[in-house]
UniProtKB/TrEMBL annotation:
Binds 1 zinc ion per subunit. Residues 88-114 are annotated as: Disordered. SUPFAM superfamilies: Concanavalin A-like lectins/glucanases (SSF49899), Metalloproteases ('zincins'), catalytic domain (SSF55486). This is Metalloendopeptidase. Residues 331-488 form the MAM domain.
Length: 498
């Protein structure tokens, strides 16, 4: 009897266990499914957030996009400006109603002291009398500057000097004045400003206490070297938009003139591309009513303008070209010494090129002056008496490298023939045509830039084939052979432009 009770008890226990298990499975299944769905949803949300979060290498691009999306949100813009400037270069973000030191005073374009005669002729880069002789710029420092301020000025000078060095030789050099009649008088005045180029005698370069950032000092020093503001270029409308409605209304000075662009008759871009990175470019809110809204908007979305951190590669090139030290090689020739430099007249042609000045002898053909300013020398192949004949010039041996070969040419007249520039290789007796023009090109000088990757040593051959008549002079000027690319490769990735 006890055995039957025991079996009965165990059966009841087993039934209860099974019932409990079934009950648990039935009523907990929807909850587990719901929990699993919640876990999956949470995981998906985390993945989406992770994808939305900017990667480290694209962080600055993401910040720049945030500015564009927020339409120049002041808070984000201030944080961005503060974050991007490294220690030693940080400037407090521009506050409402505040202007930068370069904008103070009633100077021409804010920070330039320009004499009235010079305002009418802005192409200082073409005016040799406004360049400092052989690139030496004497200066004096005002006695009120303390040791730290003097040190920062010297650092800015040294950086410009070191960046513009060409093959170990200094292009420009700042030196303390001894007895020179023309010099920079660096002293604290109202705001930050400088004359452009050499004006003669003592010329003021003002650096008040608020100007003491190395980039601001370099900006003013480069004005004194001879550089103008980048946004004054003829082609600036292709790169920036001027928002005139946000330009500060000043009853004393018309600030809109600070945003004028000038024709090629007034300003020379030296054939270099527009430079968002230039230390000579205005900032986004210069002379603005609302400093949180732009007066200048770059047309490239991630371009940052108005940096005052370093002298850009194109700024360097401008200084080098301005002072004639922009990477000259022994194959360059501008014919100003009234000879053909290191080039040689060929002996297997029909006649020789001539070094000439002014208009060519035959009417209705040839240039009226050289390419630079109309007053110098150039070479030309005279058509009169040399119909259907050939003349050639040959350079010295040029080693293997990548080169940018530049020249200016003039081909005007009813019977103009053909001008060709070839590379003649030494190791395989072959030639490669780099440049060729045939027929009338108009009564003006034209420029040609050719990139050429030489796989072996070569020499250049400049050949003119005269046409069938006397009105077919062909002229050439300013031959340059520069190692490297013809144009700088600019980087537009977000904050890298600063």
């Amino acid at each position: 009897m006890s055995t039957q009770k025991s079996v009965y008890l165990w059966k009841n226990i087993l039934v209860l266990v099974v019932a409990f298990t079934v009950f648990t499975l039935v009523f907990s299944f929807p909850r587990s499914q719901n929990r699993r769905f919640q876990i999956n949803t949470s995981w998906q949300q985390q993945q989406q957030q992770r994808q939305a979060r900017p990667r480290r290498q694209n962080w600055w691009v993401w910040r720049r996009r945030q500015i564009l999306q927020d339409q120049w949100n002041p808070d984000i813009y201030q944080r961005l400006r503060w974050d991007i400037l490294p220690p030693g270069h940080r400037r407090r973000p521009q506050q409402a109603g505040e202007i930068s030191p370069e904008e103070r005073g009633n100077r021409f374009e804010g920070d330039m002291s320009v004499n009235p005669p010079l305002r009418k002729k802005r192409g200082v880069l073409s005016d040799k009398f406004q360049r400092w002789p052989i690139g030496i710029i004497p200066y004096t420092l005002h006695k009120s500057y303390n040791t730290a301020q003097r040190s920062l000025i010297l650092k800015a000078m040294n950086e410009i000097t070191s960046k513009t060095v060409v093959r170990g030789s200094r292009c420009i050099y700042f030196t303390p004045r001894t007895h020179q009649p023309d010099y920079l008088d660096i002293k604290p005045d109202v705001g930050c400003f400088s004359s452009v180029g050499k004006n003669g005698g003592s010329q003021t370069l003002s650096l008040e206490p608020d100007c003491f950032y190395k980039g601001t000092i370099m900006h003013e020093l480069l004005h004194s070297v001879g550089l103008w503001h980048e946004q004054s270029r003829t082609d600036r409308d292709n790169y920036v938009t001027v928002n005139y409605e946000n330009i500060l209304a000043d009853p004393v000075v018309n600030r809109s003139v600070n945003f004028l662009k000038y024709s090629v008759d007034y300003i020379d871009d030296l054939g270099l591309p527009y430079d968002y990175q230039s230390i000579m470019h205005y900032g986004f809110a210069f002379f603005a009513k609302d400093p949180y809204s732009p007066t200048l908007s770059p047309k490239y979305p991630y371009a940052y303008i108005g940096q005052r951190k370093y002298i850009s590669p194109i700024d360097v090139k401008k200084v080098q070209l301005l002072y004639g030290c922009g990477g000259h090689t022994k194959w360059d020739c501008n014919f100003e010494q009234q000879n053909i430099c290191s080039w040689k007249q060929n002996t297997d042609d029909d006649f020789d090129w001539k070094v000439f000045k002014g208009s060519t002898p035959t009417a209705f053909t040839g240039p009226s002056g050289d390419n630079t300013n109309g007053l110098g020398y150039y070479i030309f192949a005279e058509a009169n008496g040399h119909e259907n004949r050939v003349t050639r010039l040959t350079s010295q041996r040029i080693p293997t490298n990548l080169y940018c070969i530049k020249l200016s040419y003039h081909m005007a007249g009813y019977t103009v023939g053909m001008l060709t520039l070839r590379a003649q290789f030494f190791d395989r007796h072959q030639t490669e045509v780099l440049f060729s023009k045939r027929g009338i090109q108009g009564d003006e000088w034209h420029k040609s830039d050719v990139e050429f990757q030489a796989r072996s040593p070569f020499q250049l051959v400049l050949e003119a084939v005269i046409g069938s008549g006397r009105e077919g002079d062909i002229a050439v000027d300013d031959i340059r052979v520069e190692p490297g690319f013809c144009n700088y490769k600019r980087n537009f990735r977000g904050i890298d432009l600063l």
